[in-house]
Amino acid sequence: MNTPEKSGIISTIIRRLKKIFIKTAEERRDDILGGPIIKTILVLALPVMVSSSLHISFNIVDTFWLGRLGAAEVGAPTAAWPILFVFLATGMGLATAGVALVAQHMGAGNRDLANEAAGQVFAFLIILSLIFTIVGYIGAPYVLRWMQTPPDIYPLAVSYLRIVLLSMPFIFSYTGFRFLLKGMGDMVTPMLIKVVFVSVNVVLDPLLIFGWWIFPELGVSGAAIATSISRVTAGLVGIYLLFNNRVDIRLTLKSLKLKWRWVKQIVTIGAPATFARAMTAFAFVILFSLVAIFGETPVAAYGIGRRVIHVITIAIWGFADASMSMVGQNVGAENKKRAEVIIKKAILVSSVIMFSTGAIVILFRTGIMNFFINEAPVITEGSRYLAIYSMSIGFFGIFRILDSSYRGTGHTLPAMGLEVFRIWGLRLFLSALLALPSLPLINFGFDLGVVGVWIGMALSNPIGALASYLYFLTGKWKRKTIRR
User: Fold this and answer.
1) Please, what is the angle between helix 393-408 and helix 314-332, to 10°?
2) 3-state secondary structure string across 93-130
3) Could you tell me the residue range of the domain that residue 415 belongs to?
4) Helix 314-332 × helix 37-67 angle, to 10°
5) Which residues of the chain have pLDDT under 70?
6) Is the Cα torsion angle 119, 122, 124, 126 positive or negative in sign?
7) Phi/psi of residue 209, each to 5°?
8) 3-state secondary structure of 151
9) What pLDDT, on a 0 to 100 scale, did the predictor assign at position 239?
10) For the packed helices 260-292 and 412-420, what is the interaxial angle rounded to 10 degrees?
């Protein structure tokens, strides 16, 4: 039983947490433009970290239950993911324009223009999602075959992909909602919605995969249906909040009518970010094809390992999103020196966390893999992947914070160049060079097998981080990109 004293302590803690995390847009703006930098970074980053951990648990639940069925079932979402990522990356690229426009207008003190920009970005995303749903549903089997998806995985992957694609408009609705609020510095509301939709997925996954209780046994299709229902839930909640004055962004049906001056800004800022994300997503399609050359075991190991890597990069996404919002608003308010200090401090704190986390994963890699699957060859290969890639995680954090900061100020063209260089010029090229006996044109390769892929992926992070830091030193990212 709680004593009055304990109840008083709990109430005090809750009040203090509300004071820290639940703020108006104007209060967040004051903190971002003039508050303690590290404290503000942590306050903005923590909800994103929680949200990211929820998203990761979303994927881990799928992997855990499908792992009870076998390697082919685990491989189906792994095969489908690069294609979904192409669509999602394109949407997130355009949504980046929303962050830049909303953040800089808010930093400049013009909330009406921030709202107007948000409506235009949201409408753009909905139109795009409808196109992607149709194109993706029709093209799914052809692309998966082109990716050289192993025969035992192929039919499962087609089913999984087509089901998830039907929820694409709602996925884009939630993406738009999340990015627009990110521009306002509101990281808490998207996190709370993620709690809801992840909970839906956690409950539905075993019911639909194994046919528990009154539900049919649907296997991989059941995992896809659970994922789709949860994301439809998130999209509907986001739409409701945006159109009913429940969050700092306020939309109406009138605000969705596209205007050329806004479309031009969205495309100018969003196109490079979209291209970069789409190229990254397409690179993952190629990377999957490269892994698939070596068979079902590496595919399953890569699928599980990729989800584990997502877990240990939770902090990175928190610091990256905090930097995006803070740097965008400070550049909008002409606080350029503060914007530079924000980036440096975010990198410092993130690096300490990420290099430490990478070391822990290396130590416990075999136990981590064993948690997901009982097949010894998959555990061995996945452990090798985790050992090699985890050494570079801290450098990925540095790259991502710099990249997000450039996007937050609307400098998406150099960010695009750096991202494409890291993924295509480094990750894909080095992975293929190290893994294969020979590459076209150069007729040379190191023939290390799938281990070469893991090494190439790891090397891309420190080299990419160095290239991005060199652009940071030019200071060109500090220029404002908004127009009234």
Assistant:
1) 30
2) HHHHHHHHHHHHHHHCCCHHHHHHHHHHHHHHHHHHHH
3) 36-478
4) 140
5) 1-23, 25, 482-484
6) negative
7) -70, -45
8) coil
9) 94
10) 10
In contact, 433 and 439? CB cutoff 8 Å = yes
pLDDT given at position 10:
47
CA–CA distance, 273 with 278 (Å, rounded to integer): 8
Cβ contact 175:91 at 8 Å: yes
Dihedral angle, C-alpha 50, 55, 61, 63, nearest 10 °? -130
Report the pLDDT value the prediction gives residue 355, as an integer from 0 to 100: 94
Q: How many Å apart are CA 178 and CA 145, to the nearest integer?
A: 33
Tokens of 181: 């609020």
Give one DSSP letter per residue of 253-274, joined into a string: TGGGS--HHHHHHHHHHHHHHH
Q: Which two tokens stand for residue 112?
A: 């009406």
Q: Residue 148: inside a domain, yes or no?
A: yes
3-state helix, strand, coil in the chain (%, to 5): 80, 0, 20
Measured at the CA of 227, the angle between CA 226 and CA 233, to 5 degrees, comes to 90
| Token couple for 133 | 């749903």
Q: What is the pLDDT of residue 14?
A: 44
Is 12 part of any domain?
no
Q: Is the dihedral of CA 357, 358, 360, 366 positive or negative?
A: positive
17: alpha, beta or left? (left if phi > 0; alpha if psi -120 to 50): alpha
Token representation of residue 269: 């800022």
Number of domains in the chain: 1
- 3-class secondary-structure state, position 484: coil
* Residues 6+ positions from 58 with CB-CB distance below 8 Å: 197, 198, 201, 202, 227, 230
Residue 95 structure tokens: 């949504």
Length, in residues, of the chain = 484
